[in-house]
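Q: Predict the bound structure with pyridoxal-5'-phosphate.
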Amino acid sequence: MEISHRAKDFQPIMDEAEAIFKELLDIPEGYSVLFLGGGASLQFCQVPYNFLEKKAAYLNTGTWAKKALKEAKLFGEVVEVASSEADNYTYIPKNFDIPADADYFHFTTNNTIFGTEITKDFDTNVPLIADMSSDIFSRPVDVSKYICIYGGAQKNLSMAGVTFVVVKNDALGKVSRRIPTMLDYRTHAEKGSMFNTPPVVPIYTALQNMKWLKANGGVEAAQKRAQERAALLYGEIDRNRIFRGTAVEEDRSVMNICFVMNDEYKELEADFMQFATERGIVGIKGHRSVGGFRASCYNAMSLEGVQTLVDAMKEFEQKH
Ligand code: PLP
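A: Predicted complex:
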């Protein structure tokens, strides 16, 4: 916590963090991995600043996707290719057209609040850009289809305070506008994320976490664990007469599992929260725009943790 980022002790941490990030996500040559400040929210503006020349395509699948889209409008024409907002984002829109002349197509792979997830890399000639804040390192990604992947670290990578950005180097410098130094990805790519003081402790934490992930089978094993946890919990949600899932089955997220009380048990919601708390289950309150419960099952969540919740749901059903 005390050492300078310019100290000789820190450079190896930064170098190793970049290298292991590239290894885990199987990033091809020609990409930079940056560790920046500002959160994923700053990327909502930094992405169009660096990549939007005339027109960009955005998929509106949730609160964060919509925020990204709103920022992009400050920089050029934005085409909303599809939206599930009218159905409170319970599904991922399918069969939409991406304009061939778009500079990029932006989407949010995992919709943290609504519990839907896109687990495939889209097939299109338009370069992809994705916000992977809440599902990075939970599955393999074909990075070669993307010119940029970004996210806040605080779910699957590290603690809050650092933002990861993967950029394709030869996609930079194509826009005609002038970009303030700190917002230009080239500044950080050229200086190895050391143009200014990087968040050293979150980067160190990310390194430790990525070493753990590597020692535990990398992203393929993380995906398998995530699928096991999700199968266990969705299985119980579907079986239990008290609860129901909120996202359509085919688009269910393995990271954020959202569920509510069935209508006839609505008045028991606070009771179940209390019941769960007494069993040591914390942090399952759903976001206010969905209500009910959200079990966030990021990489650090154990199957035993999910089993504890499932047991509580079964017990609660028997009680009622
Ligand atoms: N994008 C997604 C998918 C998120 O889940 C979040 C936060 O939960 C954000 C963006 C915003 O991230 P930050 O708070 O790091 O700006």
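A: Residues 39-41, 64, 108, 112, 131, 133-134, 152 surround pyridoxal-5'-phosphate (CB under 6 Å).
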